[in-house]
Amino acid sequence: MKAVFPDTRHYGVMPPHILERLIEHGGDRLRHSALTTQSLDQSLRTSKAIEVTALHRRSQLNEIQRFIYDAKNTMELPGVLIRQENSAASGDIAVDEAYEYLGATWNFFKDIFERNSIDNQGLPLVGTVHYGHDYENAFWNSQQMVFGDGDGEIFNRFTISLDIIGHELTHGVTESEANLVYYNQPGALNESISDVFGSLVKQYHHQQTAEQANWIIGEELLTERVNGIGLRSMAEPGTAYDDPVLGKDPQPGHMDNYIETREDNGGVHLNSGIPNRAFYLVATAIGGYAWEKAGRIWYATLTDRQLPNDADFQTFARLTQTHAERLYGRGSEYEAVLAGWRGVGVAI
Amino acid sequence: MSRFDELDVDALVKLSREGGVAYMPTLARPRAIDFQRCSSNQRRFVCDILARAEQAASHDSVGKGDQRYFRIEVRKRRDEERPDIELSVPEQCAPQELVSLWLRGMDEAPS
Ligand SMILES: [Zn+2]
């Protein structure tokens, strides 16, 4: 079936039925961004479920295997193969960023945790870029990673930030380990773990200490038209943006401000601010490179079979305490873990 | 016939697009359709879309790994605290009419 993409130029006027803050804040940027979403869905609805992973052989060696596809602005996955392992740069910046940053993420997990790819069994890394029209998202669909171009008004292309690519790949890692339920507190932990390791990938790539890192997620992602420094701040949740169109970053950084909501799977991208800040507090209290100790404690927790898939913050926190003690004894690292969780109102 | 056909002038439908790595509440663009302010033709138009959306709705969890989805709440009486019907439709399965309703409201509805 041929995909039909409506011409968005004809949707000139904001409809009268839009509720809430859109009425107050609906400027050109938001309207443009809303309209671009329109053109997405036709082709995907008709797309068959392709077993993407079946297309790619697993590496028998402990080597990275990357496959970068171009969806050519449709929603067909995986799209057209553009670049694979050891092939030259394509000249398409989204393709080459996906290739480089998936590589950086793979290297991080290999170098620091001796993990062999997403599933620790050499799963090939499959990424599709140019997904949809002006698509403002990136995701992991249990088989591959997918990146939109952004609308150019609010968001740049989603391959532009190393930590976003690390975030998506980490969703695959979490799925193959604790597989935390994507709802309420376990869902917010799932999100936080992706932010934590996404940020660590970036810090490792730039060889930054916990003090040198800015702990912003997606700092290249917002265009210069937006009054913001990124999607989220792990150090100070709730301060990443404050914009006439987007509103203010709503992330809480303490249990006192935990958001009870039915939206966003129970606020998984909102309440993740709480465990994000706990990690930041632990990492900066320990000092040095965050991946060396704080990251190791978090990774041991994520890969511990004792971590239930419906873990709440407290359950997760207690396991980080257990692993801090097992790895480093009852020293300053252990105290940092206790203080970090206390700092966000999670009692161990 | 669908279970939405019984909705009358007291009903309220809410629709938003949620999730995604860049989730921001403002970008969910919540929309409410108050059946009291709709003609019977418009109510039927919305109910048909809801029936189609229900066919595409997921019974499993949605949103995992930053995949976006549409969330629909239907209240038979507008002031009820909890919705009577709640649907989650993965973005890639969403009928075009649902996306249109979310984006442009009743612009394409009959009078
Ligand atoms: Zn995520």
Averaging pLDDT over every residue of chain A, what do you get?
88
* N-C termini distance of chain B: 22 Å
Total domains of chain A:
2
Domain count of chain B: 1
DSSP, total strands of chain A: 9
**Mean pLDDT over all positions of chain B:** 94
Q: What structural class do you assign from the helix and strand content of chain A? A: alpha/beta
Largest sheet of chain A: 5 strands, mixed
Description:
The complex is a heterodimer of chains A (348) and B (111). Chain A is of the alpha/beta class and 348 residues long. Chain A has two domains: 11-177, Elastase, domain 1; 184-342, Orthogonal Bundle (Neutral Protease, domain 2), CATH 1.10.390.10. Chain A is 40% helix and 9% strand. Chain A contains eleven helices and nine strands. Chain A has helices spanning 21-25, 28-38, 41-46, 93-113, 162-176, 184-206, 264-271, 273-286, 294-302, 313-328, 332-343, and strands spanning 66-70, 80-84, 125-131, 138-140, 145-148, 216-217, 232-233, 242-243, 247-248. A five-stranded mixed β-sheet of chain A has the order 2-1-3-5-4, covered by helices on one side. In chain A, helix 10 runs antiparallel to helix 11 (332-343). The longest helix of chain A is centred in the middle third of the chain and has 23 residues, at 184-206. The N and C termini of chain A lie far apart (56 Å). Mean pLDDT of chain A is 88; it is low at 1-28 and 31-49. Chain B is an alpha+beta fold and 111 residues long. Chain B has one domain (12-106). Helices cover 23% and strands 22% of the residues of chain B. Chain B contains two helices and four strands, in the order ββαββα. In chain B, strands 2-1-3-4 form a four-stranded antiparallel β-sheet, covered by helices on one side. The longest helix of chain B is centred in the middle third of the chain and has 17 residues, at 40-56. The radius of gyration of chain B is 13 Å and the shape is globular. The relative contact order of chain B is 0.26. Chains A and B meet through helix 1, helix 2, helix 3, strand 4 and helix 5 of A and strand 1, strand 2 and helix 2 of B. The structure holds zinc ion. Zinc ion binds next to helix 5 and helix 6 of chain A.
